[in-house]
Structure formats: C-alpha cells, structure tokens
Amino acid sequence: MSEISLSLNMASALGSIVLSEEKLKTLIDRAKQWALLYGVQMRRADDPSNPATVDFAPMTLFPSLLPLAIYEEAKSLQIHFQTLMHRAAHDQTFLDKCFKNVIQVDEFTKKLWEIYQEVQKQGLAQPLSLGLFRNDFMMDTKKAKFGMNPFHEVPDGLELKQIEFNSIASSFGGLICGQQPVHRHTMAAAGVEVKDGQLPENRPARGLAAGLLKAWVHYNVKNAVILFLVSKVERNSQDQVWLECQIFEQNPAVHVVFATFQDLIQKGTLKEDKKLYLEDKEIAVIYFRHGYVPNHYTSQKDFDIRLTMELSRAIKCPSIHYQLVGCKKVQQELARPGILEHFIKDTSVVARIRATFAGQYSLDMDSEGNEAVEMAISSPGNFVLKPQREGGGNNLYGEEMKNYLIKIRNSEERQAYILMERIHPWQQKNHLLKLGVDPSLQNVVSEIGIYGVCLGSADEEIYNVQVGHLLRTKSSSDNEGGIVAGFATVDTPLIV
Ligand code: ADP
Ligand code: MG
Ligand code: MG
C-alpha cells in the first residue's frame, strides 16, 4: 500500500481513499497520456527548440482543495484589481515615486523606465493598453485554526493573500485548459466522487484570446495582424500555441505572426504615421511573451526596438506602463496607507483588496528602510526579499536573505528590492508528476492565479473581465514557485 494514511491536518482531494502501489503506478502512467492528449504539454528541457518533442507539463496527479469562499473572493476581486492597476499605470506621479530610487540601482528597471519616459515625452501614438493579467495568491495559515478531522477538513481562518500581480507574459492560460479534464479522469479512476461544480470548467485561453481580438477590433484595420513577440527557443511555446489556436477559433480571418526582437530589428519599419510593419504586414497588436527579464535583451538594439514598438500605433500587451505597474515595487507602494483610496473610491472594495495584502516594506535609504532591514535580519523566517524580476527563482529567503541583507545593509543596492511578509501557505498532500522526480505522495502548497483582461486608455476603461484561473502546486519544501523554473506543477482546484 502507498503511504496514503494522511497525517493530521493534511487534507487532500483523495480523502481516505487508499490506492495500491500498482494502481498508483498505472494511474500516473494514464495521467501522463491524458495530459498529452488534452494539451497539457511543454517542450522538453533537453530539446527545447524541437517542436516535435513535447512532454507532459509538470502537474499534480490529483486536484488540490480550494475553499469556495477563497475561490469566489479571488475571482470577484479580479476586475477591481485590474481597475486599480490600470489607474496606477496611468498615474505618472505615482509611478515616478515608485521608481525614483529603484532606477538608481537596478539597471534593467532603469532601461524600462527610460523607454517609458521617452514614450511620455513623444506622446502616446496609441492611447490604448491591453493587459492579459494574472493575479496570484496563496492561502495563508497565520490565523487558521486546525480541527481534528484529517480528511477533507479545511481549517477555519485561511486567508487569501496576494503574492504578486503579473502584467507581462502571464503564462499557462493555454495549457491549463486541459488540466481540468485530466483531473476529472484521475479522480474517477481513483474512485473518488466529485460533485457538480467541484472541478469548475476553466478555459482562460478563450478569454485571453478574446482580449487580443478585442484590441485588434479597436485597431480597426482589416488586414493587420496580431504579433506574438517571443524568444527564439521557448520551452513553454505550447502555451502560446493554445492562444494562437483560440484566436483562430474565434476569428479565422485574423492572422497571428510569431516574431523575435531580432526579426523586428531586421524586417520591421515604423512609418511616419506611426504604423508598425513587419515586412508588408501592418501590426495591430503586439503580445509580449518575451522582454520581461534582463537576459531577453541581448544588446542595446533590443531595447531600441522595444522603444520603437512602444512608439508605434500598435496596441501593446502590455504597454511599457502596464509592464512597469506589475513590478513588485508598485505592489509595495500600493500597500501604503491611503494609496488604494487614491485610486478606488468604493470603500468596501478598498477594504477587500487591502485584506489580501501581506505586510510590505520599502528598503529605501531612510529610517523606514533601516527598520525593515533590521527586522528581516532579526527574523529571517518571516520575510521574503524580492527584486524587480519575473519568472521565478529570484527571491531570497531565510538565512540566505539574512546574509545578503547584512552585506547590503548600508548600501543603496537595497533599494532595488522590497521586503515582503512571508506567507505560510496551507499544506495538503498530492503527487507531483515531474520528469525525473519521485512521484510519491508529499506535502504540497498551492498558489491560485486569476486571469483577466483589461483594455483602456488614461481616460477610459473599455473592457475589464475575469477569464479563468490557474492553480500551481509545489513541494512545501521549495521556497520558490514557477513551472518553467522547475519548482511548481499545474493543478486544478477541487472546490470544497
Ligand atoms: P515571480 O514574478 O518571479 O513569479 P513571485 O513574487 O511570484 O515572483 O515569487 C515567486 C514565488 O515565490 C511565488 O510563486 C511563491 O511560491 C514564492 N513567494 C513569493 N512571495 C512570497 C511570500 N510573501 N511568502 C511566501 N512565498 C512567496
Ligand atoms: Mg511574476
Ligand atoms: Mg510569480
């Protein structure tokens, strides 16, 4: 028998069902095949440039539990978070304040900031920004009360706490579409009853594609294309293909082209009227799936072409200001008293958003920053140190964080980071299926992301919708998240 006798307070979707080793092995094998069939797949790490060698994406064998109230709150807050980020992105004074010190010490953020400033100086050729966002949360246990029933028991007082708001290249909205069917199969095969609505239908790719098409309609040129700005080699390319196919399903007349910075440098032209062309194709919408970390820019030429794109009439997803507003520094500044109220008038919405904020601290060279540094050094287990980076694997925790903070304690370098209260997420049990990793039942923690689409200008919000979710689950012993980064797996919520 597999070690399925779950310990106290370690709930799992399986409850008290017992699976033999043999049954488990068969089920894992089936699950991998279902995943491939339903499109939950990624290019292989050892052969990422070969489109013919995909494998199942890292995933959980079973869904993880998610309390209904948490699920509903995260979903219903999405449009309000998007309004908040949309308004913050168009508030130059606020952005100035956020980035003033960061750009003194963070070269990459400075480069993005210079693009932003140049665009502001020359004036926006395209007033609209498109956001395909994903807002990520964990279930914090700091105030939770654990009962005595180990199975299907959800502790009272779990709190929805925001991890971060992703405003560029928010991924997995494609291949997650196939995970719910995979989990329906695995639950049925394990003999676990799932009630109606417990494994909600989830197809973010549809809504994300609809967002790209909405922007295309606003651009209003019949033969113009949607350009996916990508890297040359991308393990997660299947996720992009999901969106390409969804665009085709919804409007086959709209063409999608994939291009790199290099392609645009060689074959792109910005015309007098600010129309951007790739060879003879006019570009209506640019969807950035690349360009969010320093090594995506191999030389100044890549930054120059990014600026050219930003200066064009094409609708950018995200525009440079939408990208900047997703920085951790902005999240920390939004958490200051009074700031939410500046952007959102409805006090009950403000209260609900604020309730999801963990403690966040600036590390500027002032008394507040000094106090934050000392606080983190004296209790390193309670904080996370975050730079202005994306994609997982960049944060510092525990002793490593402490030692680093001691090193940069009195240096301006610390302004590149923010300090965040550490969330202690609710632990469950699940099997993580990752290539080359033991799939035994283990303690896991989940992060729930909500996808949404926002389209608008400084004066107007044209479109603001929530379009689905992503559950990512990782071993409770890993600090970091990120699926491509190798830590997390795709998962679906079993609503309880
Ligand atoms: P990135 O943009 O690189 O994904 P995140 O802020 O999402 O940056 O951090 C990466 C991962 O680190 C998250 O997926 C989560 O697993 C973990 N993490 C981030 N912030 C916290 C926190 N405050 N407490 C606990 N874990 C965190
Ligand atoms: Mg991120
Ligand atoms: Mg993240």
Automatic annotation (TrEMBL):
Cofactor section: Mg(2+)
Residues of the Glutathione synthase substrate-binding domain: 224-325
Residue sites binding Mg(2+) per the record: 164, 166, 390
Recorded metabolic or biological pathway in which this protein acts: Sulfur metabolism; glutathione biosynthesis; glutathione from L-cysteine and L-glutamate: step 2/2
Cofactor note: Binds 1 Mg(2+) ion per subunit.
Signal peptide: none
Alphabetized InterPro entries for the sequence: Glutathione_synthase (IPR005615), Glutathione_synthase_a-hlx (IPR014042), Glutathione_synthase_C_euk (IPR014709), Glutathione_synthase_N_euk (IPR014049), GSH-S_sub-bd_sf (IPR037013), GSH_synth_subst-bd (IPR004887), PreATP-grasp_dom_sf (IPR016185)
Keyword Metal-binding: yes
Binding site for substrate: 134, 240, 472
Catalytic reactions of this protein: gamma-L-glutamyl-L-cysteine + glycine + ATP = glutathione + ADP + phosphate + H(+); gamma-L-glutamyl-(2S)-2-aminobutanoate + glycine + ATP = ophthalmate + ADP + phosphate + H(+)
GO molecular function: ATP binding; glutathione binding; glutathione synthase activity; magnesium ion binding
Residues that, per the record, bind ATP: 164, 328, 386-395, 397, 420-423, 447, 474, 480
EC number(s) from the headed UniProt entry: 6.3.2.3
Keywords associated with the record: ATP-binding, Glutathione biosynthesis, Ligase, Magnesium, Metal-binding, Nucleotide-binding
NCBIfam families: glut_syn_euk (TIGR01986)
Task performed by this protein: Catalyzes the production of glutathione from gamma-glutamylcysteine and glycine in an ATP-dependent manner. Glutathione (gamma-glutamylcysteinylglycine, GSH) is the most abundant intracellular thiol in living aerobic cells and is required for numerous processes including the protection of cells against oxidative damage, amino acid transport, the detoxification of foreign compounds, the maintenance of protein sulfhydryl groups in a reduced state and acts as a cofactor for a number of enzymes. Participates in ophthalmate biosynthesis in hepatocytes.
Record family assignment: Belongs to the eukaryotic GSH synthase family.
Subunit field text: Homodimer.
Protein name as it appears in the record: Glutathione synthetase
